[in-house]
Amino acid sequence: MSSVARAPGRVNLIGDHTDYTGGLVFPMAIDRDTTIVFEQSPKNSPGEPARSASTRADAVSLTSENFEGTVQFDLPVTDAAAVRPTWGRYVAGVAAAMTERSLPVRGFHGRVATEVPIGGGLSSSAALEVAAALAFGIDTDVATLAAVCRRAEHLATSVPCGIMDQLTSAAGVKDHALLIDCHTLDVTPVRIPESLAVWVVEISSRTLDGSEYPARVAQCAAAEREIGPLRLAGLESADRIADRTIRSRARHVVSENERVRDFAAALVAGDAREAGRLMYASHRSLSRDFETSTKQMDEAVDGLSRVPGVHGVRMTGGGFGGCVVVLAEDDAPIGTAVSAGTLVMRVRAADGASLATPLS
Ligand code: GLA
Q: Which atom of ligand 1 lies closest to the CA of 208?
């Protein structure tokens, strides 16, 4: 009998490029999953002839419904980034990150499938990592699960991502967005009013691997060397930074943390107009001060802002392409407002990752 590990993608409503300085984010897990159907590899009995990689207890063998090829590696993993096909790096990264923390890693063989658009900025890699961790038998609190999966991403790709994506995939709550303090890792679910719809529109497919993402992380670290933790800073200290670029990056982070707080309060108060206003302000800040938007994304935000019933639009996630997120009235005609062939989907806030075993 097979087990099933399931982990959702995420969309961030507001609060981008704040997580890796311990700031505030406001994402939700979405009703699009990555699923691994697997069987735990049986233990070798003493004296038994060596098994093949697809059935050994200390090995992993995984195929994908979305990609060609079989990922196979032995445990413990020595070089996760070298595993091929490339999607297997994320799986191997999880095993390596668990081993680093001395967590037991159980081999498995199985098949992965995903409904999360790949390379669209909806955290397909985080969903794969979290599902893989469950298949490896991780048994920790969600914060540790997310930290292991974040480390896996670092080992797999060297992109120095924050913890938002993995924590959202692990800790999602149906019908709620999550106000996450990335310093304390406190997660506060905030209900999304039923009258509102969240849509995602893909502008371009991309990967953060090879993007300017690491440069932004380094620029924020430079700002912190000058004025201390950005999560505690105000705009007046950001404005004291001498270098123009570093100052702009700091201004984005400091103002974005404030917008996340205000956005959560606006949702609780049922003030969709104010929530939308904050989304536009966030987009402008990411576009001008943080420079992670693209011309296409700016145009999409502009175009979608004119659709009746739309409250707010902004780029979401790491940027340099990817998706924009739209907050709109339930009946706003977003699906028909985009040009033919564009990936557009209404998403609903979903529960975080889960494992179903034959006995559960
Ligand atoms: C990517 C990273 C996250 C976060 C966002 C930007 O999705 O994986 O950790 O930094 O970009 O908010």
A: 1
